[in-house]
Write a structure and sequence with these properties.
With 157 residues, the protein is of the alpha+beta class. It contains seven helices and four strands; from the N terminus they run H-H-H-H-E-H-H-E-E-E-H. The longest helix has 12 residues, at 27-38. It is elongated and about 50 Å long. Bound molecules: FE2/S2 (inorganic) cluster.
């Protein structure tokens, strides 16, 4: 279980919520804040956010589970998100995902034992013209092939 949100984070949440006509409208920026400060949003954070914004926990869960940008558990230093949607799929993302699974020794949704890499698949990253593509943290990498992926990963510390 992760520790409770700090008083400082709670204060920031109240400050964000005060900018909106209703506290519920502040949900997305508040979730971004929590993820930025904790790295993920577990069920415990969902409940705390719901309490602070005076909304039902299911409302928070619906948003956290809808957007893949929110991590529901701790991720590695490098969060690899490979697009598995149509354009990327047609251009070979499936074999690239298999390559990453073999290279890292993990399945989709898992983190390497050294906590360096987490591998996920996601829906369209909005960069279909660069298919197949992936994101590592906030950086995009497109026109991928196995060799390019190896080079990218080998250059990460
Ligand atoms: S389908 Fe992969 S970025 Fe759009």
């Amino acid at each position: 279980m992760s520790p409770e949100l700090t008083d400082q984070t709670k204060k920031k949440i109240e400050e964000i919520a005060s900018r909106y006509a209703s506290k519920e409208a502040a949900l997305l920026p508040v979730l971004h804040l929590v993820q930025h400060e904790k790295g993920f949003i577990s069920q415990q954070e969902e409940k705390q956010v719901a309490h602070l914004l005076n909304i039902k926990p299911i409302k928070v869960k619906e948003v956290v589970t809808f957007y893949t940008m929110f991590n529901q558990k701790e991720v590695g230093k490098y969060h690899i998100q490979v697009c598995s949607n149509l354009s990327c799929s047609l251009l070979g993302s499936e074999s690239l995902i298999d390559h990453l699974k073999n290279k890292l020794g993990i399945e989709i949704g898992e983190t390497t034992s050294d906590k360096k890499f987490t591998l996920m698949t996601v829906e369209c990253l909005g960069a279909c013209e660069q298919a197949p593509c992936m994101m590592i943290n906030f950086d995009y990498f497109g026109n991928l092939d196995k060799e390019k992926i190896d080079n990218i990963l080998d250059n990460l510390e």
